[in-house]
Protein 1
Amino acid sequence: MLNQFLLLGAVLFCIGVYGVLAKRSAVMVLMSVELILNAVNINLLAFGALRGDVAGAVFALFVIAVAAAEVGVGLAIVLVIYRNRQSVDLNDVDLMKG
Amino acid sequence: MVAQNIFFYLLAAVMVGAAVAVVTTRNVVRAALYLIVVFAGVSAQYVLLAAEFVAVTQVLIYVGAIMVLMLFGIMLTRAKIGRDVDLTHDYWYVGLATAVILAAVMGYALIDAYGDDPLPEDTRVAQVAGSNTATVGDALFSQYLIPFEVVSVLLLAALVGAIVIARKDR
């Protein structure tokens, strides 16, 4: 069935959204973003299997590549924040708060 | 199809449990290790969807590379290995409410739109050269060549950007 894969993706997506909103550690937020991207990939491949089309797999590979780039740059930024503030607590990162 | 369903629900239960553990555990290192379980489960789901090349890529990139990067990030930002009480915001229930409402809306929309729509009996893609992997490779280097090149430039830019951002002597 198609829907079981889509619902699994939706559940993983929502768990990732909760992690992004509720976690204070920047590294934990990055991990939750990875959860979200994986949920999206399951959806892409489920629709690819439904259509018998290779596009789903190709776009899933693109998403994996972009996720790798995102983690690299994201962790670099987190490291700089840690070096400047000795903390990765997102409550401490309030330089641009109005 | 029955065996496929049994394995789907088995894997899905493990994945959802591990994903909940990722966002609820009080230990960052343990969260990263639970995340590996989720990624391995996602890879197994790809196999169920007959996308073995993406499944192998998932293991190589996510379990192999990204999680090592994450663990390095945890290590370099000196998160305590023990319990880390201050891992969740004080207003975590707002995030929980958002996630639950989002899950309800998406679940309703999906069930309304797709109901019991079956997947094709044979979920393999139309094959041109004997295997799924060959088909994916052919599409990647013909139809999707330009996006592929763009992604490689993006990876290069991210590599250079990460080094520039993280280096010390500025």
Note: The radius of gyration of chain B is 20 Å.
Protein 2
Amino acid sequence: MEKVLMIHADKCTGCRNCELACSFFHEGAFRPRHSSVHAYSWEREGLSVPMMCQHCENAPCVSVCPTGAMQRNEAKGFVEWNKNVCIRCKMCTVACPFGNAVYDAAGRNIIKCDMCQGDPECVRFCPNEALTYLEDTIAVRARKKAFAAKFKEAFKEVS
Amino acid sequence: MFGWTGNTLRLNLSNGAVIRETTDTRLAKLYIGGRGLGTKIMFDEVDPRVDPLSPENKLIFATGPFTGTYAPSAGRYMVVTKGPLNGTIASSNSGGSFGAELKYAGYDLLIIEGKATKPVYLWINDDQVQIRDAAHVWGKTVPDTTDQLRAETDEEAKVACIGPSGEKLALFACVMNEMHRAAGRSGVGAVMGSKNLKAVVVAGSGKVEVADPAGFREAVLNARHKIQAHPVGGQGLKAYGTDVLVNILNEIGALPAFNYRDGHFPTADKVGGESLSKNNLLRPKGCFSCIMSCGRFSRVTQSKFAGEGEGPEYETAWALGPDCGIDNLDAIIKANFICNEMGLDTITMGSTIACAMDMFEDGILTLKDTDGIPLKFGNAEGMVEMVRKTALREGFGDKLALGSYRLAESYGHPEYSMSVKKQETPAYDPRGVQGIGLNYATNNRGGDHVRGYTIAVEVLGNPVAMDPHITEGKANLGITFQNLTAALDSSGACLFSTFGLGADELSGMLTALTGVPYPTQEFMKAGERIWNLERLWNLKAGFTAKDDTLPKRMLKDPIKTGPSKGKVSQLAKMLTEYYELRGWDKMGIPTEKKLKELSLAS
């Protein structure tokens, strides 16, 4: 069954282990600036939100790519970037509505999640299950139920 | 280099010189980094008798090799300097992301010298280093300064700064980073203020390299597993924060109350971690690379004390709470927020107010001294108001800003100060836990718990359990913890990683990371070397064996109520053995033989 990578911002503590795991897996060194995932923190509000490629079904980065370097691999369910075909026009970085494709000027690369060939390292190293990679029914239902539980509490108070 | 960046940045604020140096590899191996390497530089470059608030003192931001990697809960840095609260070697530890960012900018250490003629801040953007005017943020709180400096540099930059208290040289001002994390103790923020340095702003695009990537990853996964399987490291700290300790310590009769008049507080549970999680906790927070998330983001809705921010830690809840006879958690949290915003150490703040309350109760202080506020034990509003006054050095707050020892001494009663070497002792009563008293007495920065946390063994049974009331074996226990912590602090790890990890795991990760072989005994020996070097600094600064003691109250006045009723600290029984096991003479001076063994002989 196809798996889905999900972000649960309510569980993120802002520790940035995801950024560390991503950059170390891909570069063999710790360099968060080059990570495909970023956990942004708002210190006054005490909130943190991880951001990474959502591997869209209808991906704008794929649609705008003039060379076919950005492709959706239907078998795996990921959007993949082919470094050798890419002409670095950066249209994907413009098209992504979330800003999840980034151009690295120094390395002349597009930085975008590649799902670590199907075993995402960021998920392994997230200590809080703020990032999960689960078969889609389980993942979707778990989140649905968590919201249902909030409604349940609200109903209890008014009933 | 692997682990270390290999670079040190040296800035002289008097003449504006910016010098890049190569981190000394031989010294890095001997002293690891952070606290150890910072202390070695202080020892070699600064006269220990120097006035801590003079331009001759130096201020070092020091990271460890782990900082910036995913070694679990190991993203820390140290602020090393001569501390103004007591003149010992100060190295205050903080988490957050600041230390890691300094590594990514390319530096293991940042050494600040001299004094700027007017307020400045540093903007370090990789190899671009600027000393910029800070007149527009002078006087601003920590969050306002952080926002403003990010707006004019980089929104994602990390900011370590002082609040108004550091500018006004309150002797226990801290350095704050990412708004809520504190290099808390010993007054390192006042040293920053004395140099007219408001903030250090850092953005880094570089990396930390690893000698054995596969080996390091495996060692880290193993270490994470051990912490996650530990009841405190894996569950307790995230669920309740460090404040979970309130009830644990109160139940064994070792929660100091009313300025140590007692060691038990009847309504302690109102300020403990369980109450905090139930009433105020919005969500747990983690420092950089942390897997434990003990940080608390809290809210008080009650209008009088309303606010949002991080805290409180156990020590804060105790110092501003039971030590002042207060069980109003909302007031404690409010006072905590003021300390964070203004940049004050919560432990010394609370303990100094407790000292003032004690003197007020005994008639040594009157309403005339305290700006008309009746500073009786339990006065929560008065406590919050005193924190505010201290932060701005207003009225009676001007005296409180000097810490409890100078306050009590100025009224002719130093015995009311619960401090060792003029730094206030924290939230573990040495009458109820014998080993921690030995640690307070011998600690290289005075009253302090995080340099020899024997509580782990004496109270929490980690990794083994010992009876808190006995003195046998406590000298050895204290030395082991002191040495381990000195090495751990220097590596960049968080003390709480010992809830799951020991020297074996830490030295294993360090070896894989740096490529420098650190067998466990070498790691521990580095810790012993650092401890002895700190001791040598303090001896040169003028401290003697006479200063290795506790307040008279802890030695002579028994705990009045609770499970440890009737107990006093039996320090003398442990201290002689401690000196012997340390390889020090009867005057507490390291012998030539010991110094040679540690490569410290001159």
Note: The interface with chain A takes residues 68-70, 97, 100, 104, 143, 146, 178-180, 204-210, 213, 217, 224, 228, 282-293, 295, 297, 308-310 of chain B (CB under 8 Å).
